[in-house]
Amino acid sequence: MTAPRERGGPRARLTEADLKAARALTISDVLPGPDDPPLRVLFCGINPGLVSAATGHHFARPGNRFWPVLHRSGFTPRQLKPAEQGELATLGLGVTNLVARASARADELTAAEIVAGGERLRALVGRVRPGWLAIVGITAYRTAFGLPGAVVGAQEQVWGDTRIWALPNPSGLNAHWSREAMVAEYARLRAACS
Fold it and tell me: Which residues of 58-83 are buried (b: 16+ CB within 10 A; e: fewer)?
């Protein structure tokens, strides 16, 4: 079941029942259409959080730093709101997830789900052929592709013509990375794909 594009308008408060029901929802990928520029970077989150699943918008939980970091690193001309995620395609950017299943926290996922998500992601990348695949979450990247020593940054691995970059997870729960450090890392990717 896919989440609705806009649930109750931008000011609607989500209830506990909404969040519980969100566990059964998925989010559509944001990918360029035929009139959009080529896909420069496909950002891949770990899985949708409950707020994202309930709203149908990637990185929608208040406190998630994806949208401000994306802007401050130079990928977007202004800070987009989660409900404006469709504008990414006009910039040659896209968003997907390793695992479709929504959860309150990424640590609720099993390693088997993450590995299976990695296989699905390889197939998607083969179909949409982005210049860069940016996996947003180094631990998930390590698990999905059996690379326990991988570090944040450009990866040696290449899938066809697609280069891979591992980024820190922008979740507000990731206290290891400050917003400024994330901006700097995302800006390194932006410079590499320019």
Answer: bbbbeebbbbbbbbbbebbeeebebe
Q: Which residues contact 17 (CB under 8 A, 6 or more apart)?
A: none
Confidence of residue 134 (pLDDT cuts 50, 70, 90): very high
For residue 22, what is the enclosing H or E element? helix 16-22
- pLDDT attached to residue 8: 41
Residue with tokens 């590995």: 115
pLDDT at 7 over 70: no
Query: Which three-class secondary structure state does DSSP give residue 180?
Result: helix
Contact 62, 9 (CB under 8 A): no
3 or 98: whose pLDDT is higher? 98
Planar angle of CA 58, 188, 182, nearest 5 degrees: 50
**What distances in angstroms separate CA 92 from CA 36, 145, 154, 159, one per listed residue?**
7, 25, 19, 19
Neighbouring-strand partners of residue 93: 41
Question: Binning pLDDT at 50, 70 and 90, where does residue 173 land?
Answer: low
Residue 118: both structure tokens together:
């990695």
